[in-house]
Design brief:
Chain lengths: 368, 277
């Protein structure tokens, strides 16, 4: 036991080695997952009713990006640029948004079980989206023929925001979040949102009912450049703001009082995280319906791999979530081709067993 | 220790009050924290020691009274600048996710040490881990440590913050709320020695302690609290007496006093068994 005034003691090789190996792991993980994500996206663009080789896809994309007209001839160009590409890009964005939202909520609630889908935030956003479809249609029928798509993400955002705030207020007392309360309140919020959504489906007409079914199961099927342009401005800022939240969320892991002592603007970080989660979940739900488990599975796997440091966790979750959703979309498109499975079924089929395994493996999760 | 006339207190609290749920937790408490001085707060359970510490660190706002640091109102100082000036080790520290010991200690320099070059930041973390005696645990997961080890890691984190802030703020404060509650005797003494040596560097140190013997041994300035009030404060030898012990701690004990300096002095408790023949 050598207790001395901190002086110029040199760090031993073991510690600097530890630090260097952590940094190397982080860089490898970011680079590797980034490359894998790109590769998967190119493969995903080639999959579907008309199969296109990855090399051809890459050539078309390169030609499109560089404005080189020579590569942009043939029937497959239209398929790639107008149908597949927006779909894959939407999948990347929604997946990244959902996974980062999950990681942010887990950091905010200081618990690995928090997930927008699990605690009713997605359901709240879904309810608001459903209300926008059914009621919006009804009241605007006389004035507007069709609701502009951008209204949906906004409606869903409001629903997500209200759910997150209600949840936070109920579950947090004096800076401490009760997990049991959070999960129970989430179940109640989800059930209430589900009931109200059911009520809406009762008063909706046939076309609205089809839309509502689409919400509840989730799909990337309706992807278009229009949809993408409505969703991208909402999810991209979340991804760009991640680095500013990471340090604060790391400090929050010690508790709110400790984070304050470390000089972290706790209230601002919390407000920002809640707002960004509500925005991203709202946009995701509006564009692709209710897709569960991405927000809980991806950050958890990343934590197992590189540890809980948010500076790595957030960007890696974004990449992982993007990959998971695009991969799930490939499965959804191919498994019952030429028909399509709703993507929410695929992610739930993967995510629910994983979640149970998580509970089995760490029984102490609920003690926090 | 330090000359109050030439050196104004780093932190000065005047007539502080705080109540929660209709109960007054701290009433009319006034306290100065001086550079180079170790102030130790003692008192029975529920006396308001931790609440006083939370008031002085700015974690909770007083219902009455005022606190200023270097002549500036505590409330007016932005969070990051406050973090450069004072580090706080709270009583309970649980982590939600399995950070490594190194990462926990690094949290102390992550925020306010951003201006420092990376090698310097890493050196600070290594020094402070070593100083708190947890260097060998650097790669372990915080959650797998014993309570005492976790407490020492938190101490390392606090040391990191103080060291990182030293390049920005000169007059610093260190707050420790029952920092030795889970430690064995060896580490208790080591941590308090460390706190003293930090004070010797010019930092104003405030420690909440339960062990009266350690409190009178390490305090330059002893603060006795009971039912939310500061009952007595001053140099330990003049502050603690039999009547106060009985009144505050409800124990009927007489204080033993060491004889005048220079006199040989024996404690029977130090008996180490029979020497070998």
């Amino acid at each position: 036991m050598t207790f001395a005034v901190p002086s110029q003691a040199m760090p031993t090789p073991s510690l600097s080695g530890l630090v260097a190996s952590r940094r190397r792991l982080g860089l490898i993980a970011l680079g590797g997952l980034g490359a894998a994500c790109l590769l998967l996206a190119v493969i995903a663009v080639g999959q579907g009713a008309v199969a296109i080789a990855p090399g051809r896809v890459a050539a078309i994309l390169a030609g499109w990006l560089t404005g080189n007209g020579a590569a942009l001839e043939g029937r497959d160009v239209l398929v790639v640029l107008n149908i597949r590409l927006p779909r894959v890009l939407l999948g990347l964005l929604v997946g990244a948004g959902l996974a980062v939202s999950g990681a942010l909520m887990q950091g905010l609630f200081r618990n690995p079980l928090a997930d927008p889908g699990l605690v009713g935030v997605s359901a709240g956003a879904g309810l608001a989206a459903a209300a926008t479809i059914v009621l919006g249609d009804r009241f605007l029928a006389g004035t507007l023929m069709k609701l502009p798509f951008a209204v949906l993400p906004f409606g869903a955002f409001c629903g997500g925001l209200v759910s997150t705030l209600v949840l936070y207020v109920i579950a947090t007392r004096e800076g401490r979040t009760s997990v049991a309360t959070m999960l129970l309140a989430g179940v109640a919020l989800g059930a209430l949102s589900g009931a109200l959504t059911g009520l809406l489906s009762f008063v909706s007409d046939d076309r609205q009912l089809r839309d509502l079914t689409f919400w509840s199961l989730g799909s990337l099927g309706g992807a278009s450049w229009t949809k993408l342009s409505a969703v991208a401005p909402i999810i991209l800022p979340l991804l760009l703001l991640m680095p500013f939240l990471a340090r604060g969320l790391n400090g929050l892991m010690l508790g709110e009082a400790e984070a304050y002592h470390l000089g972290i603007p706790v209230q601002r970080i919390k407000a920002m995280a809640i707002l960004l989660v509500a925005l991203a979940v709202g946009a995701s739900v509006a564009a692709a319906g209710l897709i569960g488990f991405v927000g809980i599975v991806v950050p958890h796997l990343v934590r197992l791999w590189v540890g809980p440091d948010h500076r790595l966790l957030l960007p890696l979750s974004a990449l992982g979530g993007a990959m998971l959703l695009v991969a799930a979309d490939i499965v959804a498109r191919l498994i019952v081709a030429p028909a399509e499975l709703p993507i929410g079924i695929v992610t739930a089929a993967l995510g629910a067993p994983f979640f149970l395994w998580l509970l089995l493996r760490r029984t102490s999760l609920l003690d926090v | 220790m330090s000359d109050a006339a030439t050196h104004p207190p780093i932190l000065s609290g005047r007539e502080l009050g705080f109540s929660a749920g209709g109960r007054a937790l701290v009433t009319n408490a006034s306290l100065d924290l001086l550079a180079g001085t170790t102030t130790i707060v003692i008192g029975p359970n529920g006396a308001g020691k931790s609440t006083l510490l939370k008031l002085l660190t700015g974690e909770i706002a007083p219902a009455g009274g005022e606190i200023d640091i270097g002549g500036e109102a505590l409330r007016a100082i932005p969070g990051w600048r406050l973090a450069c000036q004072r580090a706080v080790m709270a009583q309970h520290a649980r982590l939600a996710f399995p950070f490594s010991v190194y990462e926990v200690a690094r949290l102390g320099v992550d925020g306010i040490g951003r201006a420092l070059p990376r090698p310097r930041r890493e050196a600070i973390v290594a020094e402070c881990l070593a100083a708190a005696g947890v260097f060998d645990l650097a790669g372990r997961s915080y959650q797998t440590l014993s309570g005492g080890e976790q407490q020492r890691v938190q101490f390392a984190r606090v040391l990191c913050q103080l060291e990182a802030g030293r390049s920005i703020a000169e007059r610093q404060l260190l707050f420790l709320d029952e920092p030795i509650a889970s430690l064995d005797l060896c580490h208790q003494l080591a941590l308090l020695d460390m706190a003293r040596s930090i004070a010797a560097r010019g930092v104003a140190v405030l420690v909440v302690l339960h062990d009266l013997n350690l409190a009178v041994t390490y305090a330059d300035h002893l603060v006795v609290m009971d039912r939310g009030r500061i009952i007595a404060q001053g140099p330990p030898a003049q502050t603690l007496d039999d009547a106060l012990l009985q009144q505050v701690f409800r124990v009927d004990l007489s204080l033993s006093r060491a004889p005048a300096p220079g006199m040989p002095f024996l404690l029977p408790q130090q008996h180490r068994g029979r020497p070998a023949a």
